[in-house]
Each structure stands twice: as C-alpha cells, then as structure tokens.
C-alpha cells in the first residue's frame, strides 16, 4: 500500500513528495480551473522513472456527463489530452470527477454521455492510462454522488475497464456512511484503484466539498483509517498542506 499526497508544487513534485514522506504523488498538469492542453511536464522523464507512484488529476472543469455541447465536447478533449500527458509522466491513472447534469435534465442522459465517451475511446485507440472516475460530494443530478446513481453509471461504463477513485470527504458529505463503504463500492464497481483520504470540514450529507486534515474534521480518524485498511489501494491525502506529513504518518501507523 502506497500512501502519499496531492502536491501543490507542480514544477518539482518529487521534491514536494519527499518533504511530506509521500510514496505516491498526485498532481495537476495544467490549471485545474482551465481548459488548456497541458504542456509537457519539465520533469516527465524523472517522474516516469521514479519509484514514487504518480497519479494525475484532470481539471475540475471537465464534465463528460454534461448535456451542453459547449461543455461536454471540450470536456472529452481535455480528458483525452490529460490521458496523454499522464502517460508521459508514468502515471497509473487519471482521476476524473463523475460530473453532473442540470436539474432540468434526465440523469440517464449523463450516463449515456459517459458511455459514449469511454466506448469511443476504447474503440479508437484505447486509454493511455486508466480513467479513474471519482465520486463527488454534491448535486442531486450527479453521476457519482449517491451510490445508487454510481451503480447505474457503472452498468454503462464498467465493461470498458474504467477504474474508481473513492474520496472519503466526498462520500461523507454526499450522504454515504463510511462504515462498510469499501464493500459497498466493490459490490458496484468490482474495484477501488485509489483512495482520496480526506476528512470533512462540514457535516454528513452537507453536499459541501471542504477537505480537512485527518485530526481536524467531522469524521472520526479511526473511521478514515479503517477505510484505508479495508481498501488496500494506493492512498492520496488532499488535505491542507501544513498537515499532510502528519496525515501520512497517522495512516502508516494506524492503517498501513
């Protein structure tokens, strides 16, 4: 089990990882709020050759599920571009949020849009690295907030080899109990490829995506450690930077 962190220093992520004792590093390849194609990473060869595991997070703007052509089509493009960029840095996956449709849309349309994307990608040239769909905290018409919706999404895309990233803050804030969550997810997806291990600043089912350090949120730390122990997957903390080293050390002691 590798335990690491999302690092803010995209220029030298391995140095940033070493500072907090991370065995796996997550990074953005471009502005997480933008639409630009990621430039070549200056340390791509070093990252690809490193023993530190690497995972890339797609921009937050990407919404493959959207019924709006002006959002969905650029979303497909930016995910494809980041898949290529993730391969260049030796990443084991690209995390992509499940996305959502608007309140006036049928959620089935969003699921269908996801299927069209992964089916086309698989048929054309496959995936440069696996797409890891991440559960999200808010939105009644989200594709991956409630696990009943996640089940419908997985029925549509699971056959194409997509992976799953479980975010503990998102699950808790989205209204999913953490007790037994690993078994519930695996019953739906058959897999957990990555854990985003974050405490939540806000209450259960608040629909608010606000991360906290392990010892500074509304989720008991032992519940978070239990998720890590049960999943046995690589772990990334996306917690406030000043507490990341402490968070990693806690997980190594209590869940590793």
From TrEMBL:
Q: Name one GO molecular function term.
A: deoxyribonuclease IV (phage-T4-induced) activity
As cofactor, the record names: Zn(2+)
Protein's UniProt name: Deoxyribonuclease IV
Query: Which residue numbers delimit the Xylose isomerase-like TIM barrel domain?
Result: 14-253
Lineage of producing organism: Bacteria, Bacillati, Actinomycetota, Actinomycetes, Pseudonocardiales
The alphabetized UniProt keywords are: DNA damage, DNA repair, Hydrolase, Metal-binding, Zinc
> Which source organism?
Pseudonocardia spirodelae
Tell me the enzyme class: hydrolase
SMART domains recorded: AP2Ec
SUPFAM superfamilies (UniProt xref): Xylose isomerase-like (SSF51658)
* Enzyme Commission number, as recorded: 3.1.21.2
Hey, what's the signal peptide range on this chain? none
